[in-house]
Design brief:
By secondary structure, the protein is mostly helical. The chain has helices at residues 2-28, 30-41, 45-73, 75-95, 99-127, 133-164, 173-180, 183-188, 191-201, 208-213, 217-228, 230-246, 257-274, 278-291, 299-320, 326-349, 356-381, 390-418, 421-442, 451-459. The radius of gyration is 22 Å and the shape is globular.
Length: 462
């Protein structure tokens, strides 16, 4: 019976985390596509910027409607919509006949990312047993990093295959999307995980907490029993019913004395994840590797190395989040990120960029981010809000992340040009130090607690 419950939970988690894999793939595939699209459509600077950023606009739109609709229609229905959006985007980008069509398809994919970035960790948190909830939600971030790595690997593989078979005929459509315009097949790879995600969702249940909230208590109890066993499931239902009794389901609930603190946490952690400097490090990755004396002829290969490192270090979070707890893991990671970013900036400040120390500093930052600041924003934000408003509240949290991502994307080149690389890294180090202080002051430990017990913690008088 125990093995059957474990298998059921593993399958549910696998399907939900495919949303994370598609998130990572959709965001990273652009790196290989951009040079070819730029050449084919002769993009102006403004068109190039819009082509890259239109997916972020789609993300914000997706997050905006996902929260409200998931609280009305359920988590599963919205995840199905996300899977359809991913599939339409993969097909649309692969077959786009014009730049306008391509941008629309990219924006549709961004909407899928927005929905998945909100609903996948939320769904996992509502279905996972308390003892391993942190680990299962962290699998979502692991899937994001895997999606990034898959995009880098498939971009490199498709490009190599195309170059190897130039002058040959693969027949019909394959000639068009693999040999003549290779960027189309880079996008088309996304059809495979999109179909897997869509098909898998028809075999997983809806969130038991959402079902109970909607008065479908028997269905919710059945799902909880399959996951936790009958005794634990019955107690969970009692606790869920008790919390629902004093919840209003209104946005005003977030401004109650205890929930105000949860709201601040839900806004600040995604904000800090973007202002940590992760995008600047990814941007400088190839240059840093070369400056450190590692000869890399292919820019895609350097991305694969950084993507693999990011995936590897995220495994630390999966391993330790339910043992060490969210708070200690975040504090260690934030402090480590602060120190490594400061040392990275120091290398640039002293013009010491051609040694192994710079590489080690960057890898240390990547490690600290990957096991703390990166994944724990999803873990913590997905478990701190009340049942009736959790979808909408988490949507606000995730939308903060996407807005911050847009701001950092615009701000980083300005900082690099105006104050230099060293000070830019020190600004990011300061943000990581601030995130350490915020978590130290505001975030309580929640490992091993049910979502209802966590809600009680925030609402209890202090």
């Amino acid at each position: 019976m125990e093995n059957k419950r474990s298998s059921y939970l593993v399958f549910i988690t696998f399907v939900a985390t495919l949303g994370g894999l598609l998130f990572g793939f959709d965001m990273a595939v652009i790196s290989g596509v951009l040079p070819f699209v730029q050449k084919q459509f002769t993009l102006t600077a403004a068109e190039e910027g819009w082509f890259v950023s239109c997916a972020i606009v789609g993300c914000i739109i997706g997050v905006l409607f996902s929260g409200e609709l998931s609280d009305r229609w359920g988590r599963k229905k919205l995840l199905i919509i996300a899977a359809i959006l991913f599939l339409l985007s993969a097909l649309g980008t692969a077959l786009a006949s014009s730049l306008t069509f391509l941008i629309i398809a990219r924006m549709i994919g961004g909407m899928g990312v927005g929905v998945a970035s909100n609903l996948a960790p939320l769904y996992i948190s509502e279905i996972a047993p308390a003892a391993i909830r942190g680990r299962l939600v962290t699998f979502y971030q692991l899937a994001v990093t895997l999606g990034i790595l898959v995009a880098y690997l498939t971009n490199a593989a498709v490009l190599a295959y195309s170059q190897e078979h130039q002058g040959q005929s693969l027949g019909g459509l394959l000639d068009y999307i693999v040999l003549q315009e290779v960027w189309r097949s880079m996008f088309a790879i996304g059809v495979i995980p999109s179909l897997l995600f869509l098909l898998g969702l028809f075999f997983v249940p809806d969130s038991p907490r959402w079902l109970i909230q909607k008065g479908r208590e028997e269905e919710g109890l059945t799902i909880l029993t399959k996951i936790n066993g009958q005794a634990v499931a019955q107690q969970d239902v009692v606790n869920i019913r008790r919390t629902l009794h004093h919840e209003t389901g209104s946005y005003k609930e977030l401004f109650a004395p205890g929930m105000r603190k949860a709201l601040w946490i839900g806004l600040l952690l995604p904000l800090f994840s973007q202002f940590s400097g992760i995008n600047a490090v990814i941007y400088y990755g190839p240059r840093i590797l070369n400056d450190a004396g590692i000869s890399i002829d292919n820019a895609l290969l350097s991305q694969i190395i950084l993507g693999a490192a990011n995936l590897l270090f995220t495994l630390i979070a999966v391993w330790k989040v339910d043992q060490m707890g969210r708070r200690p893991l975040y504090l260690v990671g934030a402090l480590g990120a602060t120190i490594s970013l400061f040392l990275t900036g120091l290398c640039f400040y002293t013009d010491n960029t051609d040694n192994l120390f710079l590489l080690l500093s960057v890898i240390a930052f990547l490690a600290c981010f990957a096991f703390s600041i990166g994944p724990l924003k999803f873990v913590i934000a997905a478990e701190i809000f009340p049942n009736k408003i959790r979808g909408r509240a988490l949507a606000i949290s995730i939308m903060t992340m996407w807005i911050a991502d847009t701001v950092v994307g615009q701000l980083t080149p300005i900082l690099l040009e105006s104050v230099g690389t060293a000070i830019t890294f020190w600004v990011f180090a300061g943000c990581c130090l601030l995130s350490f202080w915020v978590v130290y002051k505001l975030v309580p430990e929640t490992k091993g607690k049910t979502l209802e017990e966590i809600e009680d913690m925030y609402l209890a008088p202090h």
